[in-house]
Every structure is written in C-alpha cells, then in structure tokens.
TrEMBL record:
Function: Catalyzes the decarboxylation of S-adenosylmethionine to S-adenosylmethioninamine (dcAdoMet), the propylamine donor required for the synthesis of the polyamines spermine and spermidine from the diamine putrescine.
Molecular function in Gene Ontology: adenosylmethionine decarboxylase activity
Annotated pathway: Amine and polyamine biosynthesis; S-adenosylmethioninamine biosynthesis; S-adenosylmethioninamine from S-adenosyl-L-methionine: step 1/1
Name of the protein: S-adenosylmethionine decarboxylase proenzyme
Similarity comment: Belongs to the prokaryotic AdoMetDC family. Type 1 subfamily.
Post-translational modification comment from the UniProt entry: Is synthesized initially as an inactive proenzyme. Formation of the active enzyme involves a self-maturation process in which the active site pyruvoyl group is generated from an internal serine residue via an autocatalytic post-translational modification. Two non-identical subunits are generated from the proenzyme in this reaction, and the pyruvate is formed at the N-terminus of the alpha chain, which is derived from the carboxyl end of the proenzyme.
Length: 119
C-alpha cells in the first residue's frame, strides 16, 4: 500500500467568538467592513459579497466570495456569539484574516479550529 501525503491545497478555519459586544454583532455595515478588512489583510480578492440583517438588535449573516474561496459570518447578538468560517487557498493568508477579525470583533473567548484541505 502506498500513501502519498501532499501539502494542503487550502486552509479552513472555524472560529467561534463568545462574549461579544451585542451592538457590534447587530450592525450589518460594521460586520461587512470587518470582513472586507480581513480579506484585505489576507491578500485575498473579493469577487462578491452579500449581507443580511435580521432586524433591529438582531443578527447578521454575511459572506464574501473570494477568488481564493470565502469568508462567512453568522452573529447572534442576544447570545454575544459569532460563528466565522474562513476558507482560503493559494497565497491568501488565512491567519492574517483571522487576526484582523479577532482584533475588530470584541470577544471574551475564542475557539479556533484549523482544517487543512486538499486532495
């Protein structure tokens, strides 16, 4: 049996942020700016974006479609919780995107998982 391990084709980060500021999580324009800054920090190319606000003091769901894959977020202001998904391939720097988001979104605790993707 021959096993071949090749370098990952991409990195997929799942970040759960707890104890977040509810006003930040309920602000769709602010959330969109945070994701755009994260993509810029990663050196990624934004192809398209969409953000949906569920109403006053409610959460935001947003996604950036990147040439290198995607960044998405789902927020629950009432629970102080944000779920972030960063998947990047090529030269994009997923760690720089994550650091950018964590520096902007105020949270008391983070749980980060890195999954190397490839074929």
């Amino acid at each position: 049996m021959h096993v071949s391990i090749s370098p990952p084709k991409g990195q997929h980060v799942l970040a759960d942020l707890y104890g977040c500021d509810a006003q930040q999580l309920a602000n769709p324009e602010w959330i969109a700016d945070c994701l755009l800054l994260a993509a810029q920090a990663a050196g990624a190319t934004v192809l398209n974006s969409h953000f949906h606000h569920f109403g006053e003091q409610q959460g935001v769901t947003g996604v950036l479609l990147l040439m290198e894959s995607h960044i998405s977020i789902h927020t629950w202001p009432e629970h102080g919780y944000a779920a972030i998904d960063l998947f990047m391939c090529g030269q994009a720097q997923v760690d720089a995107a994550l650091c950018s988001l964590i520096s902007k979104i105020t949270s008391k605790e983070q749980s980060i998982q890195l999954i190397e993707r490839g074929f």
